[in-house]
Amino acid sequence: MDLFDDLPLPTDVAYASLAPGAVLLRAFACEADATLLQALNGIVAQAPLRHMQTPGGYTMSVATSSCGRLGWVSDARGYRYAARDPQSGQPWPLMPDCFTQLAQRAATEAGYAGFAPEACLINQYAPGAKLSLHQDRDELDLSAPIVSVSLGLPAVFQFGGLQRSDRPQRHRLLHGDVVVWGGPSRLAFHGVLPLADGEHALLGRRRINLTFRRVGESPART
Ligand code: SIN
Ligand code: FE2
Asked: Which CATH number fits domain 14-213: 2.60.120.590, 3.40.30.10, 1.10.10.10, 3.30.230.10?
């Protein structure tokens, strides 16, 4: 029996193809939302959400934290994965089983069986917060997909091509939607437009995004 048989996930999944190798699983995380949010509260109590500095000296409008063996960090030295939270000096909180299971099942639904995430980046958007077009390329193992879970207020997700100049398509992501991109789309440019204000029944005036990554390296213990 698999350890995670308890997590409620849909058996009938509504798919939309965004690009070759990129799939949107509508409402895939909805039934598990209360379980996920409870686990999330435990994580951010240990490793609070904070606004990191970009290497260029800007403060990110999105507040971030991480869980898992590695966490994503940004500062004047650049973007990288680190085994410890630079704010506390402690290892990042463990990845909860419900997170791992959701990410694995979503990856499998999207055609990427065997996904074993090492890092989960938690992004919190308040109204107005955005994420400019970028590639997720701080990972060594580009054979694994990115699994991205949306919770709370709706957002407009931009999903483009392999060149920054490729015109991105816009997709409205709602609470519970999961996007998985890998293979030919692994290095696709993507971003989030400034979050519109609103009120979500479970999360209030915010959106949370969980992105699961396989990093594929053992960085120096920082
Ligand atoms: C990200 O690119 O890391 C986050 C995307 C999102 O918030 O949907
Ligand atoms: Fe990203």
From this structure: 2.60.120.590
